[in-house]
Amino acid sequence: MPDHASTDFHEHETAVRPDDRFDVVRSDDGRWYTVTGLCPTCRATVVFRVAYGVLGPSKRLWGRDPHRPEPLTGSVTVFCQCGYPHAERPPESPDTGCGAFWDVPVSGTGAGQGAAS
Amino acid sequence: MTDLAKKRFAQLGQQLQYDQLSTVRRQAEGWRNGLTGLTGLVGVVFVLKGRESVAGMPGVWRWTTALLLVAAFVLLLAGALCAVRAAHGQLGQGTWLSGERLLAAVLDEVERTQSAVITARRLSIAGLSAIVIAIAVSWLVPVKNAADPAGSGKDGPYVLVVTDRGTECGTLVVGDAGAVTIKQAKAKAESDKEAPQKTTLDDARQWHRIPADDVRSVVPTDGC
After folding, report:
1. Residue of chain B with shortest Cα separation from A50
2. Where do transmembrane segments lie in this chain (chain B) (predicted)?
């Protein structure tokens, strides 16, 4: 565990260091994104997956390809899921990281690199 | 300032990636129950329907009603199967249970479930519409009534009346101690062909009264 900093668990929105880069990769079928980068707080590599889901009956019309949703735009809120133990983390907490979260911008094309806002 | 709600929704989104299939299944169960209730509602609404069968309806409308009911049955059956498939999945469907394959399979199944619900909804609505149209047809189309003495319906009963002068055949109109009155079938048929709207008036003219003293026998027959 060479790069990991054993910080205390603390839920907070954090700023991202200017030299940090996050890979935002869309899957081949376009149904999920994978965001990979270093946690700004504990410096562990975080892999965060965001899948396309449904909240109700589809509004698509006849014949439209249902398997490739519209590209994700804006940003993805990523939280640390480093998997390391962090002190002060409540046992009932669903977190598996240090508690930090941050935004990663996503380009309209669906893949690329971005620095946190 | 930390906006924890943003993180909570991000956490909820992560959780929904695992839960969305069961969420969609529950949603499909709700739709299935709703569609089933809607189908039962037709029986409640039309409990006061006036006719129990298509007998007596003109041939075109009888066949139209029958086809509509058959189509409704097929549509509702297909809709019910789609709804059950959406709520409980396809039998015998499998996938490799690796992480990547399972995620793809879950997303596929979510989409198939949604499609099945939409199809079930469309089929059920079409089937219910067919039932309603069939019932409306049975309400609105005039029916030939065999018991109608005006002759608007099927002729009969036919009788052979044997008299001193010969045998006469026709539809029995009335028979009493004084006479037997029949409507002669051949004359009626010609009258219907020429002027159907004057059937009642023509019927009265075609009645033939045979005094009881002349009658030797009255025999029922299938036709003249």
Report:
1. B14
2. 30-48, 60-84, 123-141
